[in-house]
C-alpha cells in the first residue's frame, strides 16, 4: 500500500534502437518464426516457456522470478497506426504520444507538470543519464538530469566554503527570472535555476543509502537503477524516473548482442526491485520497459532490420502479472509489409499507468481517450 | 579599429572556429574580415601547430587508438591546437550528420580515419563527400552495408543515406530506399568477415588495431535494373549519389544544416518537414550557391560568411554551443594543452557528461542541438567544467588572462572594471543587467575580502574567481 507521504512513482526504461520483440518474447513453437529467422531464431532450449506457445529468451532469466510471482505484465503487439521505421520519428512518437504531428512536449513532461503544477519541487521528474529525452520535455517544467548522482552539484572545485557559497548564490542570481532575455536565454536560465535547486537536495540521497544488493559494476543500466533506488529511498518527492539502455539496433550479430543486452538489463531490473523490497518500498514503484519499434519478422542473415509491432513490460508489486494484448499473427496475410501488426495503441498503456497508477486523468496528458488494460492492483 | 569590427570578428571566430584570445582578435581585425574568411576557407592547405605524424608519435595511444577515448582525445587536441579551426569545425558538423559511433565499431582508429576524411573532403564537393562517406569503412560497418548483399538486401545504409544524409523524410518512397540499398550492394571493406569478427570480439592484442579499407566486390553487386527517384537503369552507388545531389530537397536539406551549424539554431531535424526554416530566404540563397558551384561546400561557406544574414547583429549568440565547442573554446583560452598530453583523453571524455560523447553519438541520428544541449544535468557539467578551467591559475592561458585584466587599468581595479575586462577577454560583448550586477557584486565581495596573503597572489586569485564566474554565466553557453 502506498501511504500518504509515499506516492506512487513511475520508472521508465527506454530501450534505444528498436528492441526485437520476437527474440524477447519468443513464439518458439511457431513454424513461421523458425522459417523467417533462419539465422537468428531461438529454439526450445533457448527459451523459458511461459505458456504452450511463448517463451522468454533465456537472457531474460533473471526476471523469471518476477513473472512467477505474478508481478510482470507483458504487453504484446504494442504500437501505433501507420508505423514509422525511422528511429528518430518513432521514438519521437513514443516520447510525445502524438503520432500524426510533431508535438512540442513529452508525455512525461506534461505528467510532471500535472504532478507539480507550481514547479515547486524541481526534482519531481529526474532523468538518469546524459541528455534529457524528449519524453521529459515540457516548456517551463524543471526536470533534473543526473549523469552521476555521487558528483552532482555546482562548482564543487571551489575549496573555500565561503567562496563557494558566495559563488553558488551568484549563480542563482544570474539564472533567476529575467524578462529582458530572449526565449533561449530564458530557457537556459530556467534550467540553471532548476539545477541549482535540485543539486543540494539530491546530494543527500547517496549518503543516506545502504543496501545488501550489489548492482553489476561497469554496467551503466545497473548503475542508473541503483541511483534511482537511492533517490526513491530518500523520499524527495520524485515521482517520475527515466533512464535509457542503448544498443538494441541489432542489424547484425543479433544473437550475441541481444542476449548480452537483456542479460544486463534483466539482472539490473531484478536487483532494483529486490532493493526496493529490501527497504519495504517495492509497493511504491512500477517499472515500464519500452522501445521505439520492433523489428522485421524475417532476418537479414545476421540480424534484423527496423520493423513495427513491439513488446513492452510493466513490472512491480502492484502490477497484475500476465499477458496483455495479443501476440500478433505471423501469418503472411496478417503481416504489415513484413512486420507484425500492432493490436493495441501504446497510449492505452500510458493511459493505464496514468489513471490506475499515478492517479492522473489520462485525457489531460494524451488529449484523447484510449482503451486501458486492467493492470494495476487496487 | 572600431568596437563593431572587433565584435564582428569575434562572431566570425566563434562560428568558424572555437573562439580566440583577445590578443589574436586584434591581429585578425588588422588583417581584415574578408581576408580572414579566405584564410579560414583555405583550411586544407593550412599548416597546423603539430602535424598528424608528430601527434601520433607523442604517445602510443595516439597511434594505435585502441579505444575511442584516444581517438576522441586526439581530435579534441586538434580542435584546441589547430591554426585552421574551420577544418575541425566542419568535421564536427559532419560528425553530427554522418554520426558514426564506437559503441558498435569497437575501434577508435577507423573512427579517427573517418574524421580525417571529413577534413579532406568536408569543404569540397558534396557529391564527392557522399561518395567518400559511402566508401568509409566505419560507415559501412556502422550501417551494416557489409551485410548488404546481392539477393539479400540490408536497407540500413540506403535508408539513412536518404533520410539523414541528404534529402530528409518525405522526399522519397519506401521503394527508393530498397532500390538505393540494392545499388550499394558489394560496397564493403576488405577482409569483411575477419574485420567484423575482430570488432565484435573487441580484441586488441597483440598487434593493435588493423586499418579497415574499402573494397568493392563486383561479384556481390546487384547488377539488375533499378528504379530510383524516376531514373531507371543498372544503377550503382555513384549513380544514386549523382541523382541525390541533383534534388532540390538535397540542396535545401544541406543548406539548412549549414545554416543551423554556422548562423542560428534550427529546430531538430525531425521537425523540418513541419516547420519553416528560421530564414527561408537564406536557405534559398544557399541552395542556389549549391547548384551554381557544382555542390561546393566551400562556396556555400564563403557566401554565408560574407552574407548580411551572417554578419547581422541579429545572428550574434543565436547558437547554443555544443559540448565539444564549449570545451575546445575553454581549452584554447587556458592553453593547458600546449602538447598532446595524454590527459586530454579523460578531459575530452567530459563532453559525454555534457551530452556529446565524441565518436560515440547516441544513435545514427547524431545529437539534437540548440536548447536540447541544455538540460539541468548537462548544464551543471558545462558550468563546472568552464568555471574550473577558467579559474585555474596554474594554466598559462589563465595567467595571461589575469595579467591582461590587471593591466587594463593603471590604478587598482574596481569591481566594475574587473568584470568589464573579464567579459571583454572572453569575447562576451553583451550580458543582461542581471548577470552583470551579480558578477559585480561577486567581484566586490572578492575585493573586500581581507586576506592574510597580502601579496599579488590574493589579487590574482580574485581575478581568477571572477573569470570562473564568467564561465558560469548563462551568456557563456551561447556562441
Description:
The complex is a heterodimer of chains A (378) and B (479). Chain A has 378 residues and is α/β, with parallel strands linked by helices. Chain A is built from ten helices and twelve strands. Chain A has one domain (9-50, 59-252, 261-304, 313-332, 348-366). Chain A is 34% helix and 15% strand. In chain A, strand 3 (47-49) and strand 4 form a beta hairpin. In chain A, helix 6 (183-208) crosses helix 7. The radius of gyration of chain A is 21 Å and the shape is globular. The model of chain A has no long low-confidence stretch (mean pLDDT 92). Chain B folds into two domains: 46-315, no CATH class; 323-477, no CATH class. Helix content of chain B is 57%, strand content 3%. Chain B has 26 helices and four strands. At the A-B interface, helix 3, strand 7, helix 5 and helix 6 of A face helix 12, helix 22, helix 25 and helix 26 of B.
Question: How many helix segments of chain B?
Answer: 26
Strand content of chain A is 5-15%
- What percent of residues of chain B are in strands? under 5%
Per the principal axes of the C-alpha atoms, what is the gross shape of chain A? Answer: globular
The DSSP helix count of chain A reads 10
Counting helices, strands and paired strands, the structural category of chain A is: alpha/beta
Number of strands of chain A: 12
Radius of gyration of chain A: 21 Å
Short summary of the structure?
The complex is a heterodimer of chains A (378) and B (479). Chain A is α/β, with parallel strands linked by helices.
Could you list some keywords that capture this structure?
heterodimer, A: 378 residues, alpha/beta, 9-stranded mixed beta sheet, 3-stranded antiparallel beta sheet, 10 helices, B: 479 residues, mainly alpha, two-stranded antiparallel ribbon, two-stranded antiparallel sheet, 26 helices, 4 strands, 57% helix, globular
Amino acid at each position: 500500500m502506498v501511504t500518504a507521504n509515499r506516492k506512487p512513482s513511475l520508472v521508465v526504461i527506454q530501450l534505444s534502437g528498436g528492441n526485437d520483440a520476437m527474440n524477447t518474447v519468443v513464439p518458439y513453437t511457431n513454424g513461421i518464426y523458425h522459417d523467417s529467422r533462419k539465422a537468428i531464431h531461438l529454439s526450445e532450449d533457448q527459451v523459458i516457456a511461459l505458456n504452450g506457445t511463448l517463451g522468454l529468451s533465456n537472457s531474460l532469466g533473471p526476471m523469471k522470478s518476477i513473472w512467477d510471482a505474478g508481478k510482470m505484465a507483458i504487453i504484446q503487439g504494442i504500437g501505433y497506426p501507420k508505423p514509422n521505421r525511422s528511429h528518430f520519428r518513432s521514438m519521437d512518437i513514443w516520447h510525445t504520444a502524438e503520432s500524426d504531428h510533431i508535438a512540442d512536449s513529452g508525455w512525461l513532461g506534461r505528467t510532471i507538470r500535472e504532478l507539480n503544477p507550481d514547479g515547486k519541487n524541481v526534482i519531481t521528474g529526474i532523468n538518469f543519464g546524459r541528455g534529457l529525452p524528449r519524453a521529459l520535455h515540457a516548456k517551463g517544467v524543471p526536470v533534473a538530469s543526473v549523469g552521476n548522482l555521487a558528483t552532482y552539484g555546482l562548482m564543487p572545485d571551489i575549496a573555500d566554503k565561503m567562496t563557494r557559497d558566495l559563488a553558488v548564490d551568484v549563480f542563482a542570481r544570474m539564472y533567476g527570472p529575467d524578462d529582458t532575455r530572449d526565449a533561449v536565454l530564458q530557457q537556459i536560465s530556467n534550467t540553471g535555476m532548476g539545477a541549482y535547486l535540485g543539486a543540494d537536495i539530491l546530494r543527500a540521497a547517496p549518503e543516506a543509502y545502504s543496501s545488501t544488493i550489489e548492482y553489476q559494476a561497469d554496467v551503466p543500466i545497473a548503475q542508473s537503477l541503483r541511483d534511482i533506488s537511492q533517490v526513491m529511498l530518500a523520499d524527495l518527492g520524485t515521482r517520475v524516473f527515466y533512464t535509457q539502455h542503448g544498443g538494441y539496433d541489432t542489424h547484425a550479430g543479433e544473437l550475441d548482442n541481444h542476449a548480452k543486452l537483456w542479460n544486463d538489463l534483466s539482472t539490473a531490473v531484478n536487483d532494483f526491485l529486490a532493493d526496493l523490497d529490501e527497504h519495504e518500498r517495492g509497493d511504491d514503484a512500477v517499472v515500464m520497459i519500452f522501445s521505439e519499434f520492433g523489428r522485421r519478422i524475417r532476418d537479414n542473415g545476421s540480424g534484423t532490420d527496423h520493423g513495427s509491432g513491439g513488446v513492452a513490460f510493466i513490472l512491480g508489486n502492484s502490477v497484475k502479472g500476465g499477458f496483455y494484448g495479443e501476440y500478433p499473427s505471423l501469418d503472411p496475410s496478417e503481416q504489415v509489409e513484413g512486420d507484425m501488426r500492432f493490436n493495441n495503441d501504446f497510449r492505452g498503456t500510458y493511459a493505464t499507468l496514468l489513471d490506475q497508477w499515478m492517479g492522473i486523468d489520462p485525457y489531460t496528458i494524451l488529449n484523447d481517450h484510449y482503451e486501458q488494460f486492467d493492470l494495476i492492483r487496487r | 579599429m572600431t568596437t563593431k569590427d572587433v565584435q564582428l570578428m569575434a562572431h566570425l571566430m566563434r562560428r568558424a572556429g572555437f573562439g580566440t584570445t583577445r590578443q589574436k582578435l586584434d591581429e585578425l581585425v588588422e588583417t581584415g574580415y574578408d581576408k580572414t574568411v579566405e584564410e579560414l576557407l583555405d583550411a586544407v592547405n593550412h599548416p597546423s601547430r603539430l602535424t598528424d605524424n608528430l601527434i601520433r608519435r607523442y604517445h602510443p595511444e595516439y597511434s594505435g587508438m585502441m579505444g575511442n577515448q584516444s581517438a576522441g582525445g586526439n581530435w579534441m587536441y586538434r580542435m584546441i591546437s589547430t591554426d585552421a579551426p574551420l577544418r575541425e569545425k566542419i568535421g564536427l558538423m559532419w560528425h553530427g550528420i554522418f554520426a558514426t559511433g564506437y559503441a558498435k565499431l569497437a575501434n577508435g582508429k577507423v573512427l579517427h580515419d573517418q574524421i580525417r576524411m571529413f577534413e579532406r573532403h568536408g569543404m569540397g564537393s558534396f557529391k564527392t563527400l557522399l561518395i567518400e562517406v559511402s566508401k568509409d569503412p566505419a560507415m559501412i560497418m556502422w550501417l551494416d552495408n557489409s551485410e548488404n548483399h546481392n539477393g539479400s538486401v540490408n536497407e540500413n545504409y540506403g535508408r539513412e543515406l536518404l533520410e539523414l544524409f541528404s534529402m530528409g523524410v518525405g522526399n522519397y518512397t519506401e521503394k527508393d530506399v530498397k532500390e538505393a540499398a540494392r545499388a550499394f550492394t558489394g560496397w564493403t571493406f576488405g577482409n569483411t568477415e575477419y574485420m567484423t569478427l575482430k570488432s565484435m570480439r573487441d580484441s586488441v592484442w597483440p598487434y593493435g588495431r588493423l586499418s579497415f579499407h574499402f573494397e568493392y566486390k563486383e561479384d556481390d553487386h546487384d547488377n539488375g535494373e533499378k528504379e530510383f527517384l524516376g531514373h531507371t537503369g543498372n544503377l550503382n552507388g555513384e549513380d544514386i549519389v549523382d541523382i541525390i545531389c541533383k534534388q532540390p530537397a538535397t540542396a535545401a536539406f544541406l543548406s539548412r544544416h549549414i545554416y543551423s551549424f554556422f548562423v542560428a539554431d534550427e529546430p531538430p531535424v525531425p521537425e523540418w518537414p513541419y516547420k519553416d526554416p528560421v530564414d527561408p530566404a537564406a536557405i534559398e540563397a544557399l541552395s542556389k550557391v549549391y547548384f551554381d558551384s557544382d555542390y561546393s561546400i566551400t562556396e556555400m561557406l564563403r557566401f554565408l560568411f560574407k552574407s548580411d544574414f551572417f554578419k547581422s547583429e541579429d545572428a550574434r549568440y543565436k547558437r547554443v554551443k555544443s559540448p565539444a565547442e564549449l570545451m575546445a573554446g575553454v581549452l584554447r583560452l587556458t592553453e593547458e594543452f600546449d602538447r598532446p598530453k595524454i590527459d586530454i583523453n579523460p578531459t575530452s571524455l567530459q563532453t559525454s557528461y555534457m551530452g556529446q560523447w565524441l565518436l560515440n553519438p547516441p544513435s545514427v541520428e547524431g545529437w539534437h542541438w540548440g536548447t536540447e544541449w541544455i538540460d539541468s544535468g548537462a548544464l551543471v557539467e558545462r558550468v563546472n567544467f568552464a568555471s574550473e578551467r577558467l579559474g585555474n591559475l596554474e594554466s598559462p592561458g589563465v595567467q595571461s588572462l589575469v595579467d591582461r585584466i590587471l593591466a587594463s587599468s593603471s590604478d587598482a581595479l574596481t569591481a566594475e572594471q574587473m568584470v568589464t575586462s573579464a567579459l571583454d577577454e572572453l569575447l562576451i560583448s553583451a550580458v543582461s543587467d542581471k548577470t552583470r550586477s551579480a558578477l559585480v557584486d561577486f567581484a566586490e565581495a572578492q575585493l573586500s575580502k581581507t586576506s592574510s596573503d597580502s601579496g599579488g597572489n590574493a589579487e590574482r586569485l580574485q581575478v581568477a574567481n571572477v573569470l570562473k564566474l564568467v564561465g558560469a554565466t548563462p551568456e557563456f553557453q551561447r556562441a
